[in-house]
Amino acid sequence: MNTPTSQITGLFNHPIAFKSLMDEIPLGVTVLDTKRRIILLNRSMEGLTGFVQQDVEGIPCQCVLRCNICIESCPAQTLREETDTKCMEGNIINRDRQKIPVRITFSPIRNTGGTTIGFMEVVEDIRFIKELDAKMGQAFGFGHLIGASPQMEKIFRVLPVIAQSDSSVLITGETGAGKDFVAEAIHQASPRVRDPFIKVNCGALPETLLESELFGHQKGAFTGAFENKPGRFRLAHNGTLYLTEIGDLPLSLQVKLLTFLDDKVVHPLGSTKGFHVNVRVIAATHRNLEKMVHEDRFREDLLFRLNVVRLHLPPLRSRGDDVRLLLDHFLNTFITEFKKPIKGFSAKALRILLDYAYPGNVRELRNIVEYAINVCQEDLIQWKHLPSYVTDVRTREEREREKSEEQLVAFPAHIEAKTAKEPGAEERAGDLDVDWATVEKRMIMEAMIKAKGRRSKAAALLGWGRSTLWRKMKQYGLAL
Amino acid sequence: MAKKVLIALHGNEVAPRFDLATEVLIASLAPDGTVQEDKILVLPRASAEKLCHMILTEDVGVVICGGIEDEYFQYLTWKRVKVLDSVMGPFETALERFREGSLQEGAILFDRARKGQDGD
Known about the structure:
The structure holds two protein chains of two kinds. By secondary structure, chain A is of the alpha/beta class. Helices cover 46% and strands 17% of the residues of chain A. By secondary structure, chain B is of the alpha/beta class. Chain B has helices at 48-57, 70-78, 91-100; strands at residues 3-10, 13-14, 23-29, 35-42, 62-64, 82-84.
């Protein structure tokens, strides 16, 4: 079919050919008329589908693209005025009978009067992404998160499900546990992936600035407001707004956030009208919000609204073998990045790293590995290449252990066995100045507390007979 | 001996995807090309495996469809079923062309409107 070459005028001094412009786009683009028949296929789309434009002009799009989405529910029929564009993942079968996973962005084309005169479909081949996803899945992870522990596996199982919904999410966990990565992974796996992911640190800005930052302001609303500012909520329209350190959000703004979560309407500072925004809110904090509610520092109603889906990230020290997995992961990452011929950790360095408590969680572990790789000039990372605070903790712990072991030798054998198991045993072992009578008196009192006042049980705990316990209690003035 | 033809359907047209077809036309053609019997079957759900099974149990000799995955194309060909794929257009026209012996893979059977003449 011979059609005149479409041109774009007004953009440059001379008209340009529309098809040649489209051909330069590295994604498959097709332009459809209002009845969803092909008007144009760019070069990438021809490559993807295996059809050339001349052959398929005027043919319904679903016969050419052969996408499952077009056949099951055509996006043009479900396109709403206010949303404008739709982004979906599906698959196509091309002329070579290959099934290709694709991401399709479908949008209407409007004339200057606002009337829909056609549609544009942008098709992205996501085979590579899917393969990568599969590989990452095999590597015990989700997005940038890595872990093989049961706690993390549980999180990986629920994350894709959470991502597909629009519910508010509250992520809790210690600093460095990976809250930001979880928020990003949820956005990446959600249908909002093509739209913005906006992060706001509620603890980073003073109250007045934060309000303007989040909700925007109108020109002239306050001194220095020279221009209209849309605010983060409006910038995140159709996407995700990630509020980190939500526990640090001032009470006055908590009310405003609460109103937004109810109405989905943003009222910029100094503005008389509100703006409807479609935003998914993900909040995160390392603080105990329930405790803050109890102390009147966080609104209970806001907590209820945010706490629709709660994700708690476990601290690294309770994630068992994940420490080794993460050590190897970051080692490989930094070896590649810094181009160092390091093969791994020495046995002693590994033992120190596995024994360390990581109060800063994964972030701290990552920094330790990065430091060690920078410092190390050998094949293996030795203990001397580790930051001193890691090895110092170890030696301090070792010293304490040795000291307590030495002291336990001084106790009679049967007492030693008991005290080592009992809470407070380390404290007792550390008291070198006290005499035996004081230790025995304290032991009796602890056993009585533990046995809730029952003498027979306390005697059993101490490994004594009831009469011995009675006699000793009388001796120390503990008998009633 | 009558030859059986199966056309995967999507409304009044040849289904753009074999694996997503929920209706099929099975026509028995006499050696001279006349239709001896035809029936439209509605499938409980779209499934390429179920369709392949039906093709073999119904002893179909020719399948006419739009896009088909290579795996199913190879399987049917191996089972001596001729597959005419990438056919686009009304199923009646496709059957007519097949009876005449002029239907080929990739045939476009739509009456196409010229660009900008869609009446909108």
